[in-house]
Structure formats: C-alpha cells, structure tokens
Specification:
Structural class: mainly beta
CATH topology: Maltoporin, Chain A
Radius of gyration: 26 Å
Strand content: over 45%
Number of helices: 7
CATH class: Mainly Beta
Largest sheet: 22 strands, antiparallel, barrel
Number of strands: 43
Helix content: under 10%
CATH architecture: Beta Barrel
Distance between the termini: 21 Å
Mean pLDDT: 88
Low-confidence stretches: 1-59
Shape: globular
Number of domains: 1
CATH superfamily: TonB-dependent receptor, beta-barrel domain
C-alpha cells in the first residue's frame, strides 16, 4: 500500500473517532454490506473540470445538464449552480439548506422523517419511503432513486446543479419538476488534503476531511468524510424533556483510473449512518375524526404548543418497539462504476452502473402531543436499487452533437408500519376498541428506457435541439394490513364483513391480511396489483447566441412521473388503489447575459406548466373509521411564473448575488375530500407548497490584509411568501367542525406564513491559505417559521424551522 493510500485510511479513521466510535464501526459495516462484488457506480471522467472558486466567473462554471461537460452560459436551460466554495462558506450541508439556496425549491419535513422536495410548484407530498419524487436527485449522474437516499450527500463537492423544468429525456421519468445533481470533488494528480472542525450551539460538533492524490501510474484516489454530533434542540412544553439530537457520519471513496489513452474508469463508493432523532411537531389544531363518537376528554384537554422554534411534544413509553421516545436508525450505501471508452470518429461509449441500498428502523410521533393519537411505533423499511445506463456520445466540438442510450432500473421498496392510536376517537366500543394496526408494503419495480438527444448548429448563432425517451415501467405491489396481535382488528373486520354482506364470514385469524372488498367481504390475502405504464418524454428548443456572452433560449418539453401505491392503514380496497403517472408539459423562454467585462451575470426565464394527473396525498371519508389517507390524481392544474438571477462583482473582492422566483398555481379540475372529510370542488385552489415568491440575496467581501492574510465577511438573506400545506389551506378553518379548535393565531391551521431568515459569517485566512477560521450564525434573528402542517387523526401539527444557531469553524488545507 502506498504512503498516500495509508494516509487516506488514517484520515478517515481519525475523523470517525472524533464523531463517535460506535458510528464509525457501524459505518464500516454498512459500507461493506452495501458493496456486493457485482455492484458498480457512476462518476465523471478524471478530466472533469473543477468548478471555479470565484462565483463571479459564472461563464466558466462547467455543468453536465446535457450529460456532457459544457459551460453554464452555453446551456439553454434554467440552472442554478452552487460551487463547492459557496457550499462550504454558507454551511450548506442538509437538504433543507440546499432548498434555501435554490430559488423556487421548497423543502418540507414529514411524519415519516422523509424529505419532500417541490421545485417550481411540482412535487409529491407523500412521506412513504418507496415512492419516487417529482424532483430527481443524482450523485455524479448515478441516481439516488428515492428521496431519503440523498440525506447526507452535500459534502466535499465541486458543485450542486439544480436543473429546473421537466428533465425526462436525459434524466428519465420522475423528473417532472427537475433534477438535482451532486458533483463530487474529484481525485487530484498531486497530493492535497484538508478539513475543518466546528463547534456550535446545542453542543454541536462537526468535522470534515479529505485527502486526495496519485496512488499509482494512471490511478488517483480521494477519500472524504463528514460527521456531526449535537445534543437535543427541541424542548417539551408539558414536562422536563428534550429531543432532537444529531448523530451521523458519512464517507466517500473515489478512484479514477486512466487504463489506456482511450479507456477510463471512475469508481465511487459512498454511504452514511444516521442515528439522529426524528423531528417532533407542534400541536396546533384539534378536530375529531369521528365527531359523532363519544369524546376523548384527555385528548380534547391537551394544551396547544407555544409558537416558538424549540417548543414541541411527543409520546414516551408507548412504542411497539419498547423505546421511550421517537428514534431513528438509518444506513445507506451506494457503489457505482463508470466506464468511458473513446471509439473512432470522436465517439465515446459510456457505461454507468450503480447499486443503492438503504435500511431503516425508527419510531416517529405523528401528532405532536404526549398522548398517542397517531404515532408510528414501528416504521421500518428497506430500499434496493440497481441501475444501468449505456450511452454513446459524440464530441462536443462537433456542429452536430448527439447522445443515444438506454437505461434499466430494478428496485424494491419494503416498508412495515405499526400505527398506534390509543387516544384517538377510533378507540371506542363501536370499533371494538381498536387502538393499533399494522401494514406491510412491498413494491417490486422495473423500468426500461431508451433515449436520444441532439443539438445542431444551424448557423454560428442559432442552435436547434431536441430529445425523446421511451419508458416502460412496471410496479408489482403486495399490500397487507394486519392485526398487530391484540385481536381487536381481526374481530372488528370479521364482524363488519358479516354485517355488511348479510351473511356469516370466516373469522380473520392472526397473521392474515385484512381489507373490505367492494362487496363488503373481508379479504384474507394481500392486496396484489400490477401497475404497468408507458410514456414518451420529449423536448425541443432553440438557442440563439446574440453575441459572445449573450444567449437566448426557448424550450418546450414534457416529462412524466411514475405512479405508485400508498403506504397506509386501509379500511377498504379503495384506499389501496395506486395513483397513475402524472405529466408536466413545459413552455419556457429565457436569457443568459454576461456583461460589463464579466462583472455582471444576468439570467432570467419565464415558464408555463400544463400539469395533468398531479399526484397528491389526499383523504377519503370512511363510514367506519372517519377521515383516512389515500393517494389521488388531480386531473388538471397549471403553474406559470418567472425567475431571475443576478451576480455582480462591482470591485475586487466584492460579490453580490440575488435570485428571485415568482409562481402562480391553480387547480383547474379536481373534486375530492378535504382534510375535514367534506367532498368539494377544488377548482381555483392553489397547489400545496407553491409560494408566490421565493428569494435569496447574498453578499460576500474578501479583503487582502497587509500581512498576506485575507479577511472575509458575508451575509445571506433568504425567504418566501406564504403557501399552503393542503388545498384551500389559505381559507380552511375549523369554525364549523363540532368540537374543533385551534391554537391562538392559528385559525387557518393549514396555512404556512411567509418568512425570511438571515445568516451571517466572518472569517480570517492566514497567509498562504493553509489555515482559516470562520465565525457564523444561521437564522440569527431567531425567526419562528414552519415548513409543513400535517393532519393526523383528530389533530394537526407543524414542523417548525430551527432556531438561531451560531458557531465557529477551524479549517486547514495542504
């Protein structure tokens, strides 16, 4: 083993020890389990350019939006590119941080601790593990197929690319909203190393380290590790108790091998272990799911949460697992291998193979109270995805540029849930005192696709472009609701089957599945269905270069998102029906101007989305169990808007940037059941999670000092206008609900107020740049805001944003 290779391993182990010896050991085990001998991964070629560290040189940022390396200003798409230096300086480490840095992108927490992304109003507000997002995420072009897989990817990166609008032709289905590409920092041809350690509020300790360099002739490698350990940040408002610790560690190994002059391999193995607490909610509304049932005095008497960032509440000692509080144990691993072989006539063959594995054991509180009204005592799951892409690409220097290829995906999503509702209005004599139920979801997914994309320079200034992708998707689902073991659910469904059908039925027994079929007879076998869908995504457009640095573009495109099955505790088979695929047809025109001797970068775009069969988590009104969850398609809706991004360098060392997105959404055709169990038309309603305005303003100043060092200061101001967590959330109240009530100031409980946060930072870099220190603060005004409101059985709760945090970071590089 070479000296550099030994140093790589020592650095990884030493930082792991800093975070937690237990997590370090589990991380090594998880990495080994996630890397079977036949698994491979994806990564760009060794010659991939580093993103410029000066954010002002926007015209030199290299992106891979068209699956080839191009200058950002030569690509006729709306793209937000965030450099590695910006990520580090602004402490962008989480999925929520990424959302604040990309205008038009919103992040929402969920009761199952699964992130929900919405880009320009296109998203899927479903919290289950095994559902595809509407905004696809990739690591070096290798797909992170399900949202939770991207939880800890934002470290040691060259940049993040956010591609807006449907990306179905090159990035496949499930990119109706766009695609987010994490581009890892690549191995270097010379030895380099660096890292940082930070301390912050809530006894927060963070660490990052990397080491990179040549290992042998033609072979270079890079290891990067990151981790965080902090104490609880949430406080119970009913007792002396806290929640919200952070415990995770992540690592990445990259190897680039130039086998011959024309053959290159890139290997990427990355993974993480996360033992952080799921966030608890703030209880803000009470509405009995079965108003006619006998009241539950203890539930009606629970006090509402104070509306402060840290206030929350959660159940203790009532989990099926025996835990005394919500918890989460998650592991993820990905391996990928990319092969690039230069054929004759400037054509490159690329093979990209990846395998992802994820495992979860957790219990979450879904109601924001100390009682057990809607808690997942067990929320376990596994995800596995194998992905293979093969493509041919010609030279980017040609007048006629093309890409042609195919994809194959095989995924499996398994989830087991036990829902506890001891204190809900369903635990009543009429329902035989049911208080818990379980459900298993097992989805086996296969996708085949073929795609092609072309660009042709009609003249030196005018380029025509187009693309097609055919996708054949099959999802085989096996869904089973079951009695957890107390016998109450089996007794109830046996009784209901006999009562509703008018004839005796065979009693349900332990281990059998339950649902009521359309004829009201209990179904004793799993609900098994196959969802088979086909689609053709396409795009076409024109790019016109007015002059060097001045680009106009116009695009028309259509993308699809695959359908999926719900993960719910169902009473009838109707609840288990899948949502079918949705489509977005986009019309967009924009510009990218580089002016004032490259001191000003000015981009803008306007767009209109024709949104059909939008997938949402909706409600049904069950005569036995009241208001229940299901998945529904919204037949027709539309979104239009505009956005602009400006970066200015008025003088040496000063960088000013701003990004603003305007959205206007509207439901055109949809009649369904609202959160309160009433059937109504939603025509004219805003789509959930579509704030009219999102914006970000950033200022940085770097000042050389007489001793050769550099001082820096910076500020970031981000915000968004109000939005809703449900259809008609801007007007929905509990005024007419028997027994309904809300917290003071929350009379519209499903309305999310607009907010803005301010981050500040100041730093000093020693001469030569080998050491630096930064003092920073996030949400320094301690703004109280929330990102989601969840309706559960009988109650509703908010997910509040983090309070003010502040700290200091020490770093070095070699």
């Amino acid at each position: 083993m070479t000296t550099v290779a030994k140093s790589l391993l020592l650095t990884a182990v030493s930082l792991s020890g800093l975070m937690s010896p237990v997590l370090a050991q589990e991380s090594l085990v998880a990495s080994a389990a996630a890397a079977p001998p036949d698994s491979n991964t994806a990564a760009p070629s060794p010659a991939a350019s580093q993103a410029p560290t000066n954010a002002l040189e926007a015209g030199e940022i290299i992106v891979t939006a068209n699956k080839r390396e191009q200058k950002l200003n030569d690509v006729g798409l709306t793209i937000t590119a965030i450099s590695g230096q910006q990520l580090a300086e602004r402490r962008i480490t989480s999925l929520q941080d990424v959302a604040t840095a990309v205008p038009g992108l919103t992040f929402a927490s969920s009761t199952q601790n699964t992130p929900i992304f919405t880009l320009r109003g296109v998203g899927f507000n479903e919290a289950a593990l095994g559902v595809y997002p509407a905004v696809s995420v990739y690591m070096d072009q290798a797909p992170l197929n399900f949202p939770v897989m991207a939880s800890h990817s934002a470290y040691d990166l060259e940049r993040i690319e956010a591609l807006k609008g449907p990306q179905g032709t090159l990035f496949g289905q499930n990119a109706t909203g766009g695609a987010i590409n994490y581009i890892a920092a690549k191995p270097t041809d010379i030895f380099t190393a660096g890292g940082d350690v930070g301390v912050a509020r809530f006894n927060d300790l963070t660490g990052n380290a990397y080491i990179s360099g040549p290992l042998a002739d033609g072979l270079s490698g890079r290891i990067a590790v990151t981790g965080e350990r902090s104490e609880d940040w949430q406080k119970s408002y009913t007792r002396d108790d806290t929640l919200g610790k952070t415990r995770y560690i992540a690592g990445r190994l990259l190897l680039n091998w130039q086998a011959t002059e024309s053959l290159r391999f890139s290997f990427n193995a990355n993974g993480w272990v996360d033992h952080s607490d799921p966030q608890a909610m703030q209880y803000i509304a009470f509405f009995p799911a079965k108003p006619a049932a006998a009241p539950v005095p203890a539930l009606a008497a629970v006090p509402f949460s104070p509306q402060r960032p840290r206030a929350a509440d959660w159940s203790t000692g009532a989990w099926s697992t025996g835990a005394d509080r919500p918890f989460s144990r998650r592991k993820f691993g990905q391996v990928s291998l990319r092969l690039d072989y230069d054929l004759a006539n400037n054509v490159t063959l690329t093979s990209l193979t990846s395998y992802n594995t994820f495992n979860q054991k957790q219990a979450t509180d879904g109601d924001g109270i100390a009682l057990v009204a809607y808690d997942l005592g067990i929320n376990d799951g596994k995800l596995h995805s194998f992905n293979q892409e093969v493509r041919l690409t010609n030279s980017g220097r040609s007048r006629f540029r093309w890409v042609i290829g195919g994809n194959y995906e095989k995924s499996r999503a398994i989830e087991n849930q036990v829902l506890n509702y001891v204190n809900s209005t369903n635990n009543i004599p009429e329902n035989m005192f049911i208080y818990q139920s379980g459900n298993n979801t097992d989805q086996r997914i296969q996708n085949f696709a073929a795609f092609g994309n072309v660009e042709f320079d009609l003249t030196r200034k005018l380029t025509i472009k187009g693309g097609l992708r055919y996708t054949n998707a099959r999802n085989h689902a096996n869904l089973c609701g079951y009695d957890v073991g107390d016998g109450h659910v089996n007794s109830l469904f046996t009784f209901l089957g006999g009562l509703l059908s008018g004839s005796p039925v065979v009693p349900l027994t332990a281990g059998q599945c339950y649902t009521l079929k359309p004829d009201s007879i209990p179904e004793y076998t799993p609900f098994t269905r196959v969802l088979h869908e086909r689609n053709v995504s396409w795009r076409g457009g024109l790019d016109y270069k007015i002059a060097p640095g001045y680009l106009l573009y116009a695009n028309v495109s259509r993308g699809y998102k695959a359908g999926s099955f719900p993960t719910v505790a169902a009473g009838t088979e109707n609840q288990l029906q899948p949502v079918t695929q949705e489509s977005v047809t986009s019309y967009e025109a924009g510009f990218k101007f580089t002016m004032l001797d490259r001191k000003l970068q000015f981009d803008g775009a306007g767009f209109y989305y024709d949104y059909k069969d939008k997938q949402v988590r909706g409600k049904v009104l069950d005569p036995i169990f009241g208001i229940l969850d299901t998945l529904v398609n919204v037949p027709k809706s539309r979104i239009y808007g505009a956005e602009t991004n400006v970066t200015l360098t008025p003088s040496r060392g000063v960088t000013l940037s701003a990004g603003v997105t305007y959205l206007k959404s509207k439901t055109l055709d949809y009649t369904g059941v609202n959160i309160l169990g009433k059937t109504q038309s939603f025509r004219g309603a805003l789509l959930p999670f579509t704030p009219e305005w999102t914006y970000s303003f950033n200022a940085d100043y770097r000042m050389p000092l007489s001793n050769g060092g550099t001082a820096s200061v910076g500020a970031t101001f981000t915000g968004r206008s109000s939005e809703t967590a449900a259809f008609y959330g801007e007007t929905l109240t509990l005024a007419d609900v028997p027994g309904g009530k809300t917290a003071p100031g929350a009379n519209r409980p499903y309305f999310i107020d607009g907010y803005a946060t301010l981050d500040l930072r100041a730093g000093y870099e020693l001469p030569g740049g080998r050491w630096h220190v930064q003092i920073w603060g996030k949400n320094v005004t301690n703004k109280y805001y929330w990102t989601n409101v969840i309706p559960a059985t009988d109650v509703a709760g908010r997910y509040a944003g983090r309070p003010a945090t502040y700290g200091v970071t020490f770093g070095f590089k070699m």
